[in-house]
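for the writeup, i need someone to sanity check this before i put it in the appendix. the sequnce is what the collaborator sent (i think, or maybe the updated version? ugh). structure was predicted straight from it, no edits. if anything looks off just tell me and ill rerun, i have time this weekend
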Amino acid sequence: MVNTSKTRTDRKRKAGHVNFQAGEIAFIEDEMEALAAEYGLEVDGDVATHVQQRKQKKKIRRHRVRSSSKSISTVSEHKTSRNLKSSATFVKLLDVRPNENAHDDHEDEHKIVLRRLIAVLPDTCALRACGVPGCSCVNGSRSLGLRQHDNELDKIHTIDVIENAQCLKCQHGVLQHSVVLREDVDPIAAVPSGGQRLLQMLFQLIRLGRIGASIFKSRVWIQSAVERLDIVLVHLKRLYATGGTQNGQTSASELRQERQLLSELQIQLRKAEQALRTASRDGLPILLACICDRMYFQTYYSALVLYGRACGAVPAPEVYLKDLDQFTPDSTLQLEKFLNREMLGSDVPSRLIQSLALPVASSSLPDELARERLRAAQHETDNPLLAIYHSRLRDGVRLFYEEGVGMDGEMDAAVVAPKGSDLATSKKVKGNKKPQKKHYRRERNSGSRTGGDAKEALSSALVEMPSYPLLSEWRNNCRDWCCHLYAYATPTKEALDVMAKYTPIVEVGAGTGYWSSLLLRADVDVVAYDKAPPNAEGAEGNAYHGRVPPFCSVACGGPEVLSQKNMAKHTLFLCYPPPGDAMAVRSVQLFQGDVILHVGEWQGDTGDSRFESELQRRFELEKEITLPNWGNSAYGLTVWRRKSKDIEPIAWRAMSCFHCDKTLKDAAAAGEPLRRCVVCKTNVYCSSTCAQQDAVGHAAEHASRLVFLKDPTSSTAYDRMFESSAFYRELREPNLDNTVMAVKSNWNALVKSETAVQGNEKNTTEESADEDSEEEEEDSHDKTQAAKITTKSAFAFNFGA
């Protein structure tokens, strides 16, 4: 009888009832579940079950289509899951985070909840009025307990104490009670006027907003954090408007940095208020997480510049993100399921998961597992940037994959319309630039590059990988500040071990010296140089790292140091050389040694075509190491040795067909140039047939970047996609003609030449005021300049905004 009743209910839902169709019922149930979660109310068990089932079906349906796309045929879900189980090796991740939810079963519930609240709320704040409509409770945290759940869905996930806590007076959750200033705190004393106490208070309020928005999803806590932040910022604005602070600080740089921080936080606060009014339910936690993280990084940067790394007012990013992880105990398990479902299989290369450098359990013995956890924890301590990367990976899977965000064709719409966004950027740049005189434009085109070089520079300009707005916001949130505070590429133990074999090492363009500091810690002989070390005195600091204190000693110098006699036996290390800059190619020209270590993209946003051609003209590839990449990057470590008769070059995986291993040279000889995917900027194919045969592995690469595209349904569709520049772009062959570029060892002449060109460009921009009537020449020039401006602005960073 039970089965019959269930069947009738399912039929009734599918057919629709009370004039509602199944899709409309699903929408209503989703809204009910969202409102119940927002106000801490109990939702009907059937509704909760249906919502959870739809989320799982969305992921299963996408996975089933991806697995069957290779043969362009439809297979049953049972058959697909059976094949996956038989062909894939299960990955078991190590969770090196401590369990913060552990407590004694006999301990008083009120004390358990109160201790957890103390760890979350700012020092000067407490719970007060209930935010549920119609509830007049102002009991706050005076009497708290733990809710008893009978719902089976609540037993599936590990629930944090705060999510399970409730007020014993009104029976509503603590997440529905507003966060206000404590009654025993003086309102005036609660708002510091500057210094480390100010930064600490700002951090605590930002942290509260981040936890309430992206983890507990409590609109009441978010609103409370926004209101408290607004009070602090209004007070500071009024204080600075009257001439400064009253706490005895006399440093002009400190006051200037705090004013810049105030301006930035006000901008982000307005964005948060707008997001609360306009963002969708699925997108709101992600958008607010990005806003809160930006506010945190701006606060941390101010603390770093003013007080150094020893300042404890604002914790370092790896500590901040690890602290957030304690409130998501299921995130490691969710990442593990994601890897086993999306990135494992007979058609998925094992290097894909290996490149993530995740701590994987290799034993089932308790003692060995304990030792592996200790080693993994030590690696995270030694390499904080990798620890940040793993935290972001877990966060991305939790916010996007588990919630089904981006699986309804958002990415498909973003990929097929990149030209519109480029056109908008071009118009924006054109409108903001002053018109230039005709003869100045001619000088600029002929003075900077000649002939095809200008066209080549335009084609290789830095272009953002396509993505829909929410994913793009998340990618920038994950990567940008990590690049500026640490390094533009994330090192791994494997990469550092390979580099250690080529000691002694000289790094040019070291930035913060993060990679060099890890090598020094491993007792590798390395010296780092940068033409503008981040700690150098000056108004602007380093263009890419601001005034971030370096991780090791970084001397002032550029490629010219490579011509010194004591550098003849060193290995050259170039980590993410700036795009469109001559630093990389001149380093290769002046380098006297035999081995070059390069970390960056190829035909991407590092170096330029001159550097790539010069490197391949003089050196042979010896080794290639994959590195963990952010969602919008595709870099790796390559080892190059100077050409000689004894050197045997190896196949270059990143520049060969991912299915048939056809090289760039062989493909050009066959009249089938290699084309690289625009979405991931990683997978390369020589034909649509190879792309179709490697569809499963390609989709796994996309999944690692939280990209979920709808698969083509026919071979013809694959052909159209492969030929479309929206999905694939042709790779260029290197120019290996020795007569094209002469080696210049006179660094002063090179610097003077570049300075003269830049000076002409600057004068051109400042003096240009006349309108030009020749539309064709103006449009052509504007496109070139837009590409150059996009390249610089996207790579550099404005720390003083």
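Residues 409 and 709 are 7 Å apart (CA to CA). The chain has a mean pLDDT of 79.
thx in advance!!
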